[in-house]
Amino acid sequence: MANNQMELNFPKGGVFLVIIAVAAIILFSKSTVTIGPGEGGVIFETLGDGINTDKSYGEGFHIVAPWNKMIVRKIRQQSISDEMNVLSVNGLEVKVNGTIWYKPEFENLGLLIKTKGEDYERELLDPAINAAARSVVGRYTPEQLYSSKRDVIEQEILDEVQTVLKDQYLIVKRVLVEDVKLPPTIRTAIETKLKQEQESLEYEFRLAKAKKEAERQKIDAEGKAIANKILSASLTDKILQEKGIEATLELSKSPNSKVVLIGSGKSGMPIILGNQ
């Protein structure tokens, strides 16, 4: 009994075409890069001069040569926070907690990475922040750092950081000093002093308010006295008698009164009797 054998017949060169197709797929997958939202990229040319500083790539799908590499970095605004030990103007050590907002220049991303490396925050930003913080904080006393100078210090640190990073392809937007930690004894002394100053200001305010009220009452009393003096001087006996007669006549017209004139009162004023 003869055995039937099935033979698979591939087209001539079929295996070679499959190999080429698989290789093409692999090369294509390695040659495509998708840059996400808020990111940018630069090409590292393996067979060339390294980082290509002529062009930065934005969000979206990109094709690069398989022997090259796309370096992708965030280009949107970012923030880093740090705690620094610095000295005040009188040599007291304080801890400053701060946050800084920054972003790389998109059009110069290649130059930034080429000159400072991919970890440019550690290489460039951290030293600038620490140097600026030490320089600025060293101008103030602990009391100024703790209370009234916070916004001024933030602006001065920002100005110094921006000066240091000028032409370094890194933009610093804002500096926030979140907390200044002093030794407990110094902090307690400052808080006590501030409380006493506040109480003193409140006491001075109450005194000033009471003084103004006394002055107001004095002026009011003087005004009334002058008005009464003028009124008394203008009311002669004849005027008073005429006013009295007018009032008596008006009263006599009341339907509820029976008018009886008998003689006259003092100063010649009539007397009304018989009210019902």
From TrEMBL:
What broad class describes the main subcellular location of this protein? membrane
Specify the superkingdom.
Bacteria
Task: Write the record's keywords in alphabetical order, separated by commas.
Answer: Membrane, Transmembrane, Transmembrane helix
What stretches pass through the bilayer?
12-29
Q: Which residues form the Band domain?
A: 30-194
SUPFAM superfamilies, alphabetically?
Band 7/SPFH domain
The record ties this protein, via SMART domains, to: PHB (SM00244)
Gene Ontology CC entries for this record? membrane
In Pfam terms, one family for this protein is Band_7
According to Swiss-Prot or TrEMBL, what is its membrane topology? Answer: Single-pass membrane protein
Q: Which InterPro entries match?
A: Band_7, Band_7/SPFH_dom_sf, Prohibitin
Q: Where in the cell is it found?
A: Membrane
**Statement: the UniProt record of this protein carries the keyword Transmembrane helix:** yes
| Name of this chain's protein | Peptidase
Q: Where does this protein come from, organism-wise?
A: Polaribacter porphyrae
